[in-house]
Specification:
Elements (H helix, E strand, L loop, with lengths): L2 H20 L9 H23 L17 H14 L5 H15 L28 H23 L2 H16 L1
Bound molecules: zinc ion (ZN).
Length: 175
């Protein structure tokens, strides 16, 4: 996917995730407090998620594209950062959604296990990044991501406690 697609995906994901964290459709009462909480969650997530979503394609200039910065060890570094240095919370969400969009939404895959293996993994759902359908595919992929996240948040476990603890738990697992 191109830069425009990744930014579109990250912004929509931050908006949707902010909404999911703030609003429970089963017992929602619109109040000024809930409007402030929504704005706060969207602001908290949007910049880190957009930055994370832009990062992997830095490997078009440094290293091998879709390999050097498109793999699980790089994601592990972003998960470890908040644990070790206490910063870059939520940037991993942008990196993770970049990988999902490249694998699901575009023709070429990514080398998930690089540098252990140069094999690129892909799903047969993608369209060419230059395709006129690229934006539609990006929106569809984002809606699917948000549907999965909403399902987890409303029916399995609360993401607002676990977004930060997921960072902690996943980071601890990976280092
Ligand atoms: Zn990419």
């Amino acid at each position: 996917m191109n830069k425009k697609g990744h930014v579109l995906n990250a912004i929509l994901l931050a908006l949707g995730l902010g909404l999911i964290l703030t609003v429970d459709p089963r017992n929602f009462q619109p109040t000024t407090d809930s409007a402030f909480a929504l704005a706060e969650n969207v602001a908290m997530l949007s910049l880190p998620v957009v930055l994370g979503a832009l990062f992997p394609d830095v490997d078009t200039a440094f290293g091998k594209h879709r390999k050097t910065l498109h793999n699980l060890p790089v994601l592990a570094i972003f998960l470890a950062f908040p644990l070790i240095f206490g910063n870059l919370q939520y940037v991993w969400i942008g990196v993770a959604t970049h990988y999902v969009l490249d694998m699901v939404g575009s023709k070429r895959g990514i080398a998930l296990f690089y540098p252990l293996s140069p094999q690129e993994y892909d799903l047969p759902t993608g369209v060419a990044t230059s395709s006129k359908y690229a934006d539609i595919v990006t929106v569809v992929v984002t809606v699917a991501e948000l549907a999965v996240l909403a399902g987890i948040h409303y029916y399995l476990f609360s993401l607002d406690t676990s977004l930060s603890s997921a960072t902690t738990a996943l980071g601890a697992l990976m280092i």
